Amino acid sequence: MATKIQVPRGPADDSRGLSKEEILRYSRHLIMPEVGMEGQLKLKQARVLLIGTGGLGAPLGLYLAAAGVGQIGLVDFDVVDFTNLQRQVLFGTSDVGRPKITAAADRLRNLNPDIRIDAIETRLSSENALELFRDYDIIVDGTDNFPTRYLVNDACVLLGKPNVYGSIFRFEGQITVFGYPHGPCYRCLYPEPPPPGLVPSCAEGGVLGVLPGIVGTIQAAETLKLIIGKGQPLIGRLLLFDALGMKFRELKLRKNPDCPVCGTHPSVTKLIDYAEFCGIRGEEAPSTVTNIPEMTPTELKSRLDRGDDLYILDVREPHEYQICNLHGHLIPLGELPRRVHELDSSREIVAHCRSGKRSAEAVQFLQKAGFRKIWNLKGGILAWSDEVDPTVPKY
User: Fold this and answer.
1) How far apart are CA 266 and CA 187, in angstroms?
2) How far apart are CA 215 and CA 241, in angstroms?
3) Pairing state between β 172-178 and 237-242
4) Among candidates 74, 55, 75, 56, which has minimal Cα distance to 124?
């Protein structure tokens, strides 16, 4: 069940107008003819739901709260991790270990005590999405995985809610508005999800810390424009941002009349199992999925200590090897097919990466190539740091 913690509005909670304090707070809005008193009152009466309080949700929450959006819902179930601080500017070092939803609500309450924050600590699912979305005018997608993106899209289309979408990876971002009347939805752009594992996550591929700030701020701008009814929102337009080249590009998007969700004759009329739709069967260990032989970090340490002849194969990238390593032989996963001749199939080989995922793929490849004495280091360097040598940095 979703736990909803409502932060009451302050004494300025008067939907008929703005208090003297609110007029002072929003004065830079009020002197703009495109906003003015009418637009600021629309902001005060608006209800916006943010899915995620992380990289994208951080600037979204800050700027929507600062702008005076009257009711902001936050949906998250994670806790603040030290690795979040490089980009999730809602949180500080003292928040590490706290529920994100609590830390975010505290920060936004301090930023603007005159608005209402609905802190909803739950994992968004097909069972609760429609209920959660129903009370809000606009849904803003700050998620980082395909099942939730399809879920948010379908729920928005079914309820007729605009979906302000953003995504980030490494140096690149995308922003658009899905689900607007007569406009395209996420499935019009991506009818089918990519195969599992094809697109690496930010944890695997990295992300420039400032990138979610740029993309999330643009999402916030689009949300404010939709509320006040001014400007040209990104409806039917996909904005692409390249931070390395410092370039923006725009692609035209068209509504697909055969879309299974928003098309003329939709076949998806209720929410489905989105993990199954995206080919994901839970957070299974590589050995559970592929029956790959594994060795735990403590087993590896024990065998190394007694002098066993083991070949440690590191399949990460060179820049990762520079962060930390186990003094193994570096052959990045992408180079393995053309460098397989460098390996001796008569020796026992233990492959590892950061978390065990890429090395599991390496083991699977080497098994098909005829290697029999091959192991995957369970949990990778992260597990080695936890179980064997805490001086090895985690990243």
Assistant:
1) 12
2) 8
3) antiparallel
4) 75
Give the model confidence (pLDDT) of 42-71 as tens digits: 999 999 999 999 999 999 999 999 999 999
- Token pair listed for 3: 């736990």
The span from the CA of 150 to the CA of 129, in Å, is 12
Burial of 179 (C-beta count, 10 Å sphere; 0-12/13-18/19+): buried
Give yes or no for a contact between 257 and 182, defined as CB atoms under 8 angstroms apart.
no
- Report pLDDT for 252: 97
pLDDT, tens digit (0-9, with 9 covering 90-100), for 196-251: 767 777 777 789 999 999 999 999 999 999 999 999 999 999 999 999 999 999 99
pTM: 0.79
Q: What is the pLDDT of residue 363?
A: 96
Distances (CA, A) of 322 to 212, 365, 392: 26, 25, 12
Structure tokens at 87: 């980009």
Cα separation of 132 and 22, whole Å?
A: 29
What is the length of the chain? 395
CA angle 231, 236, 242 (to 5 degrees): 85
Looking at the DSSP bridge assignments, the partners of residue 11 are: none
Q: Which residues contact 289 (CB under 8 A, 6 or more apart)?
A: 281, 360
**Structural domain boundaries of the chain?**
3-277, 286-387
Minimal CA–CA distance to 146: which of 184, 189, 199?
A: 199
Yes or no: say if 37 and 23 are a contact pair by the CB < 8 Å rule. no
Give the domain 286-387 fold. Answer: Oxidized Rhodanese; domain 1 (3.40.250)
d(C-alpha 220, C-alpha 374), whole Å: 50
Token readout for 119 is: 């802190």
Residue range 337-370, pLDDT digits in tens: 999 999 999 999 999 999 999 999 999 999 999 9
pLDDT digits (tens, 9 = 90+) for 275-328: 999 987 544 333 334 589 999 999 999 999 999 999 999 999 999 999 999 999
Asked if 294 contacts 318 with a C-beta cutoff of 8 angstroms, the reply is: no
**Rounded-to-integer distance, Cα 69 and Cα 13, Å:** 12
User: Any idea which residues carry the catalytic annotation?
Assistant: 202, 353
92: Cβ contacts below 8 Å, ≥ 6 apart: 85
What number is the average pLDDT over the span 375-383? 97
Q: Which fold has domain 3-277?
A: Rossmann fold (3.40.50)
